Amino acid sequence: MEAFGQQLLAGVGTGSIYAIVALALAVIYQATHHVNFAQGEMAMFSTYLAWVLIQAGVPYWAAFLVTVAASFVMGAVLELVVIRPLRDAPDLSMVVVFIGLLVTFHGMAGWLFGYDSHDFPSPFANLPWGFPQLLSAHQAGSIALTFFLVALLFAFFYRTSLGLKMRAVAQNRVSSQLVGISVGKMLMLGWGLAGAIGAVSGLLVAPMVFLDPSMMMGAVLYAFAGALLGGIGNPAGAVVGGFLVGISENLLGTYVVGTDLKLSIALLLIVVVLIFAPDGLFGRRVVTRV
Length: 290
Description:
Structural class: mainly alpha
Number of domains: 1
């Protein structure tokens, strides 16, 4: 029973990473109704920026803040330069664009930083933590940071006028324009927020694996499964889904399918959710009269 509890808590720790990536996917989907397949590569690229700053002697938390801010700007610029001109393009064209962004960021990281693996420091490694047998200090810190981030975003979306405008644009762009809301600015803000959230996820993933251009591929797949499970149009649901996937992956991978087949859990979950509950556990079905 003790071993089961340890695996459960470890799944919560891993799920906190998936939850943050799923949150970034949900924020972009809510704003644009498209899935950003390049979200993981953007997070990876941001992590390399932090690594460069840390190697240059910048303190970790200063590098963290600079990276998050730079990633916010990167996301906003991508929306303005790449996504906005294709706003009325067919869905298939947008899928190709996102795949192109994925390949571009992956190639740029390899070209600029190389394909060798690097150690990445954890900001929580030296903090006092009394239960290392249950969770590592990094996992505990990741869980706390995830809940803090979710609370911050909840306050932003539901307690600020800017957040209310973003929610209005996500629900009905035409009506938002009629009441004077700048849809373009809100979409830029949504992409900026997703870029910043993705950067946080990359900074939390890197200490658990080695920093290299492929480090986010597995995490994004699990996060995508979590976002679909919780409801990709519902950021809070996507976070819950990310935690559920992390717990399921750890328990099923340990006691049922084995570690070699853990990735298949995410793939199977995606298929099952798309077949039986395409709106997710907390998604909202939208009915359009024609």
